[in-house]
Hints:
CATH class of the largest domain: Alpha Beta
Order of helices and strands: EEEHEEEHHHHEEEEHHHHH
CATH topology of the largest domain: Aminoglycoside 3'-phosphotransferase, Chain: A, domain 2
Number of domains: 2
Oligomer: single chain
Radius of gyration: 18 Å
CATH architecture of the largest domain: Alpha-Beta Complex
Number of helices: 10
Strand content: 15-25%
Distance between the termini: 53 Å
Helix content: 40-55%
Strand order of the largest sheet: 1-2-3-5-4
Bound molecules: adenosine-5'-triphosphate, magnesium ion
CATH superfamily of the largest domain: Aminoglycoside phosphotransferase (APH), C-terminal lobe
Structural class: alpha+beta
Shape: globular
Largest sheet: 5 strands, antiparallel
Amino acid sequence: MTGKRIGEGRTAEVQEYGTGKILKLYRADIPAEYVEHEYEVSKYVHKQGIQTPQPIELVTLGERKGILFQQIHGSSMLRLIGEKPWRLGEYARQLASLHHDLHKLQGPEAFGKQKESLRSSIVAAPMLTMEEKTPVLEKLEQLPEGDRLLHGDFHPDNVLIDGQAWTIDWMTGMSGNPAGDAARSVMMFSMGALPPGASLSTRLVTGFIRQRLTKGYIREYLRLSGLSYAEVNAWVLPVASARLTEGIPLAEKEQLVREIRRRLRSK
Length: 267
Ligand SMILES: Nc1ncnc2c1ncn2[C@@H]1O[C@H](COP(=O)(O)OP(=O)(O)OP(=O)(O)O)[C@@H](O)[C@H]1O
Ligand SMILES: [Mg+2]
């Protein structure tokens, strides 16, 4: 690999690749179908007019798969929030508006269905007993299925800004109910453990920013979508349980389990 490294996430390394292009090179343990799925969803959303980097080509390099994308010369919204926290309110509203715009698109069933994906993750979730999973699964069954395009991992590190806002990272794109996609975003903004060594001031500042981002986002998302808080909140229990299968820090999983148990008690 020769290009300048410009980013690294949980699934891939991102580097410059020729003029105006980047290569998102997935780790060897990421199944090829997941990469193909990201490529297909990216092509679909790009074609539908969502502001997303143009997917150019699927490539194979030895054991690893990659996707060539149009390069965006900007920073992630997360980084901008860190640099200009006084503009947090604007960013929160912009995030809600981007999310609501993508929910206007129909989500092809071939991308996979939200409730099916949640069901299998809840069944596989570590740290919960069968007695806890059963009511979560019952709750999921009662929720209304939808047919909209969902991002599945919509947060400010998956939005790049260069004057315009570009939504990236479509590996978890699927078809379903936007309320569940919004619930997942709210859960990610409001929870998420800090590294064990984080100082008290970091904890306080981060806590404050998280709270303001969550409130600003949900207020605007409800306003734009016409959904009620209860309609979104109803998805938190299944969405939080499903998240336990993800490769997130143990402290964050413990926080999720506390929240899940609290919600199960108050049902
Ligand atoms: N088209 C692009 N143009 C410029 N930079 C990009 C582009 N796509 C990704 N990046 C950079 O690479 C980083 C990681 O990209 P992306 O979120 O797609 O990867 P990931 O490994 O799936 O991340 P995650 O940890 O969220 O799973 C981004 O935060 C951004 O800095
Ligand atoms: Mg990402």
